[in-house]
Design a protein that fits this description.
The structure holds two protein chains of two kinds. By secondary structure, chain A is mainly α. Chain A has eight helices and no strands. Chain A has one domain: Orthogonal Bundle (MetI-like fold). In chain A, α1 packs antiparallel against α7 and α7 runs antiparallel to α8. Chain A is flat and about 70 Å long. The termini of chain A are far apart. Chain B is of the alpha/beta class. In chain B, strands 6-7-8-3-9-10 form a six-stranded mixed β-sheet, sandwiched between helices. In chain B, α6 links the parallel β7 and β8. In chain B, α3 packs across α4 and α5 runs parallel beside α6. The longest helix of chain B has 16 residues. The chains are: A mainly alpha, B alpha/beta. At the A-B interface, α5 and α6 of A face α2 and α3 of B.
Chain lengths: 214, 246
């Protein structure tokens, strides 16, 4: 074992981690709001709207992330006839894919609040939108916070998929260092440790909110 | 006599094949208190929901202060003219009592926070829980929660109040404090339509009593007549059961 290789390449690994985190954060920042919109759409009384949103969720959740990534990476430039840069297509794929999962979490959160609270809001003269915003969503978000955080961990782990198209996030960075230095054991152990630290801390936070909600 | 605050005319409502309301008509005049009783599933709560447009009915119409619910273009405005109190309070658990009360006056009516809070404290004082304003509903007893819910409805300064079994979810010793507040309101001239099985309250406070069964009004009479000489056999049966229980 030669851990010197880790110390020497630490800045490189850290920049890989930064890219992973960046990809995670940007994906979450856009897929959560998109998920909220789709969730509300699924609960709509308008058949075409709830049908379209349900179809979106079902199609996306029935496909592996890597395939969605290929779609955006190879097919979208082909269809649109334009060159899309790597990072853009990766982020677009992540947002669309994870929006489907966030939509399901948000939907069950909204449904946990109950119709009678909505009636109370409406009967006091609030509009449906105001009732959603001030009464339903704040309670729903509290109820679904643990599941949301858990899903964010999944997004973070999901970023490793971009390895296949050569985007230099943490795993890809580690792999190329391992190849160059011929020290795969040290590198993959280190990378595993980093993933563990990040994901385990996040899951502790999720647990904290779970206890708070109970 | 001026026009009634609430007028229900020939309202019919069915869910698929189930008839929830069948040709229901009634009128509540300004300052009147009318009590509706009847077995569960008789359409009492559904009727209250029709009055503020929470439930869509297929036949007839309801007028609130002269405005037709069926043709209403601005339901939020109509609804804030009618205060509603629920069986399970339906306070918002993520807000303090004060925030519960000021939410609709600020967001729906456009009052300033200061105006809304003054109003909230006024009505909290009226229902006797001004000291609970900063607490969350979960910290209050059932009776206090229901009084907070009444204050929340009153803060919109409605023309009429609808009560949907306001004491059914309460422990016996807390029923009295809620009824006390309601009695006080009725005596203060509030127009009220109350779904309840509290026959003592009906006898003492109501001007008229309505008995409903299977979506129909079976009996509608002034309070003395209702208790002394009920006309329908079904009413007598129900009264016997409910009064024997007491």
């Amino acid at each position: 074992m030669d851990w010197q290789v880790i110390i020497a390449n630490l800045p490189l690994l850290m920049s890989g981690l930064a890219k992973s985190v960046q990809l995670t954060v940007v994906s979450i920042l856009f897929s959560v709001p998109l998920g909220c919109i789709i969730a509300i759409g699924r609960l709509s009384h308008r058949r075409w709207l709830s049908g379209a949103c349900t179809a979106f969720v079902n199609v996306l959740r029935s496909n592996p992330l890597i395939l969605i990534l290929f779609w955006f990476y190879f097919l979208v430039p082909l269809i649109t006839g334009r060159n899309v840069n790597d990072l853009t297509s990766i982020i677009a794929a992540f947002i669309v894919f994870f929006a489907a999962y966030f939509a399901e979490i948000v939907r069950s959160g909204i449904q946990s609040v109950g119709a009678r609270q909505i009636q109370a809001g409406l009967s006091s003269g609030l509009t449906y939108a105001q009732t959603m915003r001030h009464i339903v969503l704040p309670q729903a978000i509290r109820a679904m916070l643990p599941a949301l955080i858990t899903q964010c961990i999944v997004v973070f782990q999901g970023t490793t998929v971009v390895y296949v198209i050569g985007y230099s996030e943490l795993l890809h960075t580690a792999a190329s260092i391992a190849e160059r230095t011929v020290r795969p054991v040290e590198l993959y152990v280190t990378v595993a440790f980093i993933y563990f630290i990040v994901c385990y801390s996040a899951s502790r936070i999720a647990r904290h909110f779970e206890k708070g909600a109970a | 006599m001026s026009q009634p605050i609430i007028r229900v005319e020939n309202v019919g409502l069915r869910f698929d094949s189930f008839v929830a309301l069948d040709d229901v008509s009634l009128a509540v005049n300004a300052g009147q208190c009318i009590v509706i009783c009847g077995p569960s599933g008789s359409g009492k709560s559904t009727l209250l929901r029709c009055i503020n447009g929470l439930e869509r009915f297929q036949k007839g119409d309801v007028w609130v202060d002269g405005v037709s619910v069926r043709g209403c273009q601005d339901l939020p405005k109509l609804r804030r003219g009618v205060g509603m109190v629920f069986q399970h309070f339906e306070l918002y658990p993520h807000m303090t009592v004060l925030e519960n009360i000021t939410l609709a006056p600020i967001k729906a009516k456009g009052l300033s926070r200061k105006q809304a809070e003054d109003l909230a404290f006024h009505y909290l004082d009226r229902v006797g829980i001004v000291d609970q304003a900063q607490k969350h509903p979960g910290r209050l007893s059932g009776g206090q929660q229901q009084r907070a819910a009444i204050a929340r409805a009153l803060a919109l300064e409605p023309k009429a109040m609808l009560f949907d079994e306001p004491t059914s979810a309460l422990d016996p010793e807390m029923i009295a404090e809620v009824l006390y507040v309601m009695r006080d309101l009725a005596q203060g001239g509030m127009t009220m339509l109350v779904v309840t099985h509290e026959m003592g309250f009906a006898r003492e406070v109501a001007d008229e009593v309505i008995f409903m069964d299977r979506g129909r009004i079976v009996e509608h009479a002034p309070v003395d007549e209702f208790f002394s000489t009920p006309r329908a056999e079904r009413t007598r049966e129900f009264l016997n059961k409910i009064l024997l229980k007491l």
